[in-house]
Please model this.
Amino acid sequence: MKNVVRVVGAGLAGSEAAWQCARRAINVELFEMRPVRSTPAHQTADFAELVCSNSLKSDSENTAPWLLKEEMRRAGSLLLEIARECAVPAGHALAVDRVAFAARVTEAITREGRITVRREEITSVDEAGEQVTIVATGPLTSESLAEEIARLSEPQERAEPERASRPLPHNSHSPHLYFYDSISPIVEADSIDMTRVYLAARYDKGSADYINCPMTKGEYSRFYDALLEAQSVEERDWEKLNYFEGCLPIEEIARRGRDTLRFGPMKPVGLMDPRTGKMPYAVVQLRQENLRADSYNLVGFQNHLKFGEQARVLRLIPGLENAQFFRYGQIHRNTYINAPTLLRETLQMKAHPYVLFAGQICGVEGYVESIATGLMAGMHAAAMASGLDPLPSPRASAFGSLVHYVTHADPRNFQPANITFDLLPALDKKVRDRKERHRLQCELALREFDAWMEKAGMPAVRA
Model:
């Protein structure tokens, strides 16, 4: 094998994969098509740009997101280290200044001597084994590369036609899936009426870093009716849009019933208003967007409304009557492969083992999950480039459980997944107390993870 790994895409997964190869003395060609060719959602040419939320989820010990991040920390994740350096207040969650984060990642990758950055679009993938290739082009993969991925997937698809899932519209033989993902609006901090809101974290976990906009029943009803009446960007048959259930637009949630928002993104539980001593009827939460604290995003308020309609409807939220928007909500198509049909537990293609997939395109959902699969793909690719066999991560670990889901889920109805305890294997002994059960699962996962890292020749980084 040539001692060079090709990484296609410099997003979260691709940047982490390139770094992991380089730290193992493997040379990398990292391809990123921006700014030569942009996407509908990206705004810069920086690596690892976060286009949706700025949150990397819970940092509370013995939660599933914490476990995945802890394994990443022990494996020496570059992006997780930078995320902590660019953190902004977010209660018990890890959130980042997305501009600073992307800039720091870009700087770290471009100054690494073993990584050669090439700003060009890749439209073909070498599956013959001349070099190892990691495809980490994310949910906004270009049409040309999507067609190439479809070509690589065709032999497996023909061999297992009954396992095929919903195809992309442009290729009836493609094993890809697609769903419409969303971006939340961002408002200027100075335009928020702080006399009408209060600071709190749900159940008082962590510091009170979220701005909470409380609603009475009447205020909620007015907002709900206006939301349903608002005009969308495109007049479509909404029943045919293949939304991912974990990232639905607020207007789509609202269509499912009058109280669905109150049990979803506007859930008031655990957010007692200190001014009244009571729980509001509904709450809209705002999370700090950057280190300057000059902007906040509306948590869970992704939508597909026309910009003028967004301004009209969102200004019905108490405290946002005069809101000025840095960015409105948007919808974009996300593309990912039918991983249970196509991938091994090492993220290699079954039919083309010198081609690996990482990030959202391999069927994971979430920033942290994307970085983690990039880290794993980088480790595996480096092993292959050195003439070694890649070692799958242990099933009991968060790494192993995430990849186990991606490669063993039902391919006929495959949807991306976040890391949850549901993905981890059950303990041998039944433990009724949920917190204790999760603590023991984390303890087992980290023990197995450390042993795997030792066996892979990269001892885990301890606290």
Observations:
- The chain has two domains: 4-177+336-455, 185-328.
- The longest helix spans residues 434-455.
- The first strand starts at residue 4 and ends at 8.
